[in-house]
Design goal:
8 helices; alpha/beta; 195 residues; globular
Length: 195
Amino acid sequence: MNERRLLVQRILSLIDLTNLNDGCTPEDIKSLCARASGQWGHTAAVCVWPRFVELSKSLLTDSQIQIATVVNFPSGDGEVAATIKETVDALLAGADEIDLVLPYTALQRGDESTVVAMLSAIRNVVPAPSLLKVILETGELDTLDNVRKASEIAMYAGADFIKTSTGKIQPAATMPVTYVMLDAIKDFYLKTGKI
């Protein structure tokens, strides 16, 4: 039983507990934060809309649970300056982690420079130890080659994590997409030594 408890605690500590429902209320966030820790351990983070960062931070002040929020979400087509402001405001409100939606429509039309500009700009305003997680929105990328390209661009631009999707479109994630992303992470590590 002790071994099982340790395994469950480890798994929980790697998960973000999320509420990005459009109709999310402060009561929903209070419930989310209460569920983030329990008899089996705690999650890595709670992920909430930017408007709920301050509330979440106040509810989890004395815990190890991080506060994550989303920017350029969910469409991925925001302006760089607006996304920078959104990010800085979230960090000032207490966010520990920023989940940035990659400008996937720009990538689809072959405009990698727009993607790199957004990722680089946000990386520059997310100081360590805060984390930058990049959401690829793989269900909109059309091909596995685009998933590979998005993964590489995000990692070389300084993403601490890459994620499959916003959860707002279907398919959100598939096994082939997961394999391509994991393979890209492996190759990035072999080339750079960075995890």
